[in-house]
Amino acid sequence: MNISRGSGLGLSICQAYAEILGGTINVESELGNGSTFSLEIPLLSFS
Predict the structure, then answer these.
(1) Is 13 exposed, middle or buried (0-12, 13-18, 19+ CB in 10 A)?
(2) Please, which residues have CB within 8 angstroms of residue 4's CB and are 6 or more apart in sequence?
């Protein structure tokens, strides 16, 4: 079995993008089931 591990930068990069775009990152975590992360960014409206 080949297990690949990341550098752990993904969530930090997403947080930086969320802040730049005026959005947020949310997390829901359940012991034994893992975590779900969501990135919410506002939609721009062009008139």
Answers:
(1) exposed
(2) none
Report whether 18 contacts 39 (CB < 8 A).
yes
β-partners of residue 29 are 35
Structural contact between residues 28 and 12, judged by C-beta atoms closer than 8 angstroms: no
> What's the token pair of residue 15?
């947080």
The 10s digit of each residue's pLDDT in 26-42 is: 999 999 998 899 999 99
**Which residue in this structure is represented by tokens 């893992």?**
34
Contact 42, 30 (CB under 8 A): no
Q: Cα–Cα distances in Å, from 15 out to 3, 12, 22?
A: 26, 5, 10
Q: What is the pTM of this model?
A: 0.63
